[in-house]
Write a structure and sequence with these properties.
- The structure holds two protein chains of two kinds.
- Chain A is α+β, with helices and mostly antiparallel strands.
- Chain A has five helices and five strands.
- Chain A folds into two domains: about 80 residues, Beta-grasp domain (Ubiquitin-like (UB roll)), CATH 3.10.20; about 80 residues, DNA polymerase, domain 1, CATH 1.10.150.
- Chain A has a five-stranded mixed sheet, with helices on one face.
- Chain A is globular and about 45 Å long.
- By secondary structure, chain B is of the alpha+beta class.
- Chain B is built from twelve helices and twelve strands.
- The longest helix of chain B is centred in the C-terminal third of the chain and has 19 residues.
- The radius of gyration of chain B is 20 Å and the shape is globular.
- Chain B starts with a strand and ends in a 23-residue tail after the last helix.
- The model of chain B has no long low-confidence stretch (mean pLDDT about 95).
- The chains are: A alpha+beta, B alpha+beta.
- Bound molecules: flavin-adenine dinucleotide (FAD), iron/sulfur cluster and FE2/S2 (inorganic) cluster (2 copies).
- One FE2/S2 (inorganic) cluster binds next to loops of chain A.
- Chain B: This is FAD-binding molybdopterin dehydrogenase.
Chain lengths: ~170, ~350
């Protein structure tokens, strides 16, 4: 069997020949495609640093085999800003100082986008914290992260409503 | 991670044929299997990838009022299915108390049932473990065993089954539908996982090549929808496995319990249904005395397997809490912290 996978990564189709089926989605991004924004913390599903959107849903790239996801759409932190304009979640993280060392930040931001898309947490801080519990922050920037997610939730909901009205 | 053959079946029949070869393992989302392969605790010679199968991904409402959940349904999709949530709220609460949103988005029904124990010695290939390497011994005995089993364990293995999902499922009488080289069969979830006995390496009734295709909830299981809860005690608020957990379902008429369901998690190598407790609750008036008595019956056969005598009392308290919450009624919306003992009890009770 040919071990090639075609993935649409940050809106660009990419075909990768795999010499080995053991390559995780995370290693594919980091080691083969030079997309090192997605971080490897634990490599075991325990920290959330590797969070990306897979077909629009947040997942841990470290516990997925690339070969299992032929045809999938992947969005990573590198694909968020468009024409130099930050994504509302990125902007909110900066506004709320939601980071210190920044290692967990790409995963936090991708997870927050997933959470907002799921629409289960709204602006309830307890639900936001629970919904973000799959992302650990060794620097303890949780307070800013929660505030940033709530602000981005508002921004993105208002924007959507405006777009719908237009 | 060891090298393996990679097989990509498109039908159930192809999958079963491919996995009948000894040393094969099915790969669902991989959140447990790949993790164990990375640390060498699982070393399958062949991975049969279920991600390209057609089917096994529907939540079907059956004509008899039961529900059939395909083995490839994602944990998050099941938990957020509105009709399923109305019928089986405790199952959704258990799902949402497990792992993280990222993991639930991919983890499958089949994989959740068949996830392996979190015993640290099982995961550490330098340790003796009868479950991973039959006959090698059990380093958990006399080791770090605070979180190990208090029910149904053997001298050979004291591990627990870590699933939250399975606990309300077993309470509600779920049935596992299986297809394999010798045909199809259906096994009550209660009989699906095996206690360790002399053969801890045999974790379920599945034989080589057998595939879980669905989990079915019988029509009467939805009769507990108005009064059912899952409660899970963890060592941190979220994103942690159960120390102990309990699922409870009640049907109450004219101030009397007409039927009760109770199961415990984190206490044994399988989700533990407490039938003696259920029988004692039937006909009783719901309240502290009946719930305490039921909890004592549920743990009647419990024995510590190490530094874990505390789990016996803790499991009783969690069972009482689950029954108390079930009696208070299923909330319209799940609490912000699903299954958490930190969520207040309606009516201002504190545990
Ligand atoms: C950090 C972390 C925290 C977690 N916390 C929790 C928690 O709090 N509560 C909880 O319940 N779980 C928890 N989990 C476990 C998680 O629920 C499981 O990893 C997940 O459900 C497994 O599903 P999967 O589809 O990824 O299975 P896989 O990893 O793909 O497979 C698991 C096993 O099931 C077998 N298998 C899969 N599908 C089938 C099938 N249809 N028929 C036969 N065999 C099959 C595989 O061969 C393998 O042996 C956690 C996991 C991680 C990594
Ligand atoms: S308790 Fe069971 S799984 Fe853990 S080391 Fe002993 S034999 Fe292995
Ligand atoms: S690197 Fe994937 S969860 Fe930690
Ligand atoms: S900012 Fe340092 S780990 Fe989160």
């Amino acid at each position: 069997m040919s071990l090639s996978v075609t993935l649409t990564i940050n809106r660009v189709p990419r075909t990768v020949e795999l010499d080995d089926p053991r390559v995780t989605l995370l290693d594919l991004l980091r080691e083969r495609l030079d997309l090192t924004g997605t971080k490897k913390g634990c490599d075991r599903g325990q920290c959330g640093a590797c969070t990306v959107l897979l077909n629009g849903r947040r997942v841990n790239a470290c516990l997925a085999l690339a070969i299992s996801h032929d045809g999938a759409e992947i969005l990573t932190i590198e694909g968020l800003a468009e024409s130099g304009v930050l994504h509302p979640v990125q902007a909110a993280f900066i506004a709320h100082d939601a980071l210190q060392c920044g290692f967990c930040t790409p995963g936090q931001i991708m997870s927050a986008i997933g959470l907002i898309g799921e629409g289960q947490a709204g602006d309830d801080p307890e639900r936001v914290r629970e919904g973000m519990s799959g992302n650990l922050c060794r620097c303890g920037a949780y307070r800013g992260i929660t505030e940033a997610v709530i602000e981005a939730t508002h921004d993105m909901t208002v924007t959507t409503t405006r777009e719908e009205a237009a | 991670m060891n090298r393996f053959d990679y097989v990509r079946p498109h039908t159930v029949a192809e999958a079963i044929a491919a996995a009948a070869m000894p040393g094969s393992a099915y790969l669902a989302a991989g959140t447990n299997l790949l993790d164990l392969m990375k640390i060498g605790a699982a070393r399958p010679a062949r991975l049969v990838d279920l991600n390209y199968l057609s089917g096994l991904d529907a939540i079907e409402q059956l004509p008899d009022g039961g529900v059939r959940i395909g083995a490839r349904v994602r944990n998050a999709d099941l938990a957020h299915d509105a009709a399923f949530r109305r019928q089986f709220p405790a199952v959704c609460e258990a799902l949402l108390s497990g792992a993280s949103a990222q993991l639930r988005n991919v983890a499958t029904v089949g994989g959740n049932l068949l996830q392996r124990t979190r015993c640290a010695y099982f995961q550490d290939t330098a340790s003796a473990c009868n479950r991973r390497a039959p006959g090698s011994g059990c380093d958990a005995r006399g080791g770090e065993n605070r979180l190990h089993a208090v029910l149904g364990w053997s001298e050979g293995c004291i591990a627990t089954h870590p699933s939250d999902f399975c606990v309300p499922l077993v309470a509600l009488g779920a049935v596992v539908e299986i297809e394999g080289p010798a045909g199809a069969r259906a096994i009550p979830l209660q009989d699906f996982h095996l206690l360790p006995g002399e053969t801890p390496e045999r974790e379920s009734v599945l034989t080589p090549g057998e595939l879980v295709v669905a989990v079915r909830l019988p029509p009467e299981a939805a009769g507990f929808a108005a009064q059912s809860r899952y409660v899970k005690l963890r060592e941190r608020t979220s994103y942690a496995f159960a120390v102990v957990s309990a699922a409870a379902g009640l049907r109450i008429e004219n101030g009397r319990i007409t039927e009760a369901r109770l199961a415990l998690g984190g206490v044994a190598a399988k989700p533990w249904r407490a039938e003696a407790a259920e029988a004692a609750l039937a006909g009783a008036a719901p309240g502290a005395a009946a719930f305490r008595h039921a909890a004592e019956l549920a743990l009647a056969g419990a024995r510590p397997s190490g530094d874990n005598a505390f789990k016996i009392e803790l499991a009783q308290r969690i069972a009482i809490r689950a029954l108390t919450l079930a009696a208070a009624g299923t909330p319209d919306r799940l609490p912000a912290l699903p299954a958490s003992p930190f969520a207040p009890i309606p009516g201002g009770l504190h545990g």
